[in-house]
Amino acid sequence: xxxxxxxxxxxxxxxxxxxxxxxxxxxxxxxxxxxxxxxxxxxxxxxxxxxxxxxxxxxxxxxxxxxxxxxxxxxxxxxxxxxxxxxxxxxxxxxxxxxxxxxxxxxxxxxxxxxxxxxxxxxxxxxxxxxxxxxxxxxxxxxxxxxxxxxxxxxxxxxxxxxxxxxxxxxxxxxxxxxxxxxxxxxxxxxxxxxxxxxxxxxxxxxxxxx
Length: 211
Prior knowledge:
Layout: H1 2-14, H2 19-28, E1 32-36, H3 37-40, E2 46-52, E3 57-66, E4 83-95, E5 103-118, H4 129-132, E6 134-151, E7 156-174, E8 182-202
């Protein structure tokens, strides 16, 4: 009887993982292509790549570029003083306490942005210079976010994160949206809100013969 129990236990311990377990293990260790819909909401095309660097950590590199001055790429109204062109690159290390890509997530990383902005009225009276001058310069900062991540399908995932980026910015100041002489510089430390509403597609294949 003891021999039978030992034999059964040994067989159970050597049984291969179920197909669903194997597929899940592959999924949580897979890289992903991602796009931030919040960036897209500012008419900024963007693309990112996220990959695991441990059982509970991932590293992502995201980049976005908005070459046109207004919300629509085909808006060529030269009478419109609004101008918002920018590019940004950021790297984010994310911690998932439960497992990669699922549940609560805490992120932190570096961000750099080059911008050319004029005639924009920010809400709550923030950044009053943007309504009066054209600013062209760079921002270097550190961001911190927290949020949640859900699997939508076998390959698709949605993540919502919010936080802030704090850092140093320096820009040339002009008195005209498209022309005019430089009238000084604008520099100092700034804190900017950060919102990440990302859809990710995971690159993996978990095909099995079923044997």
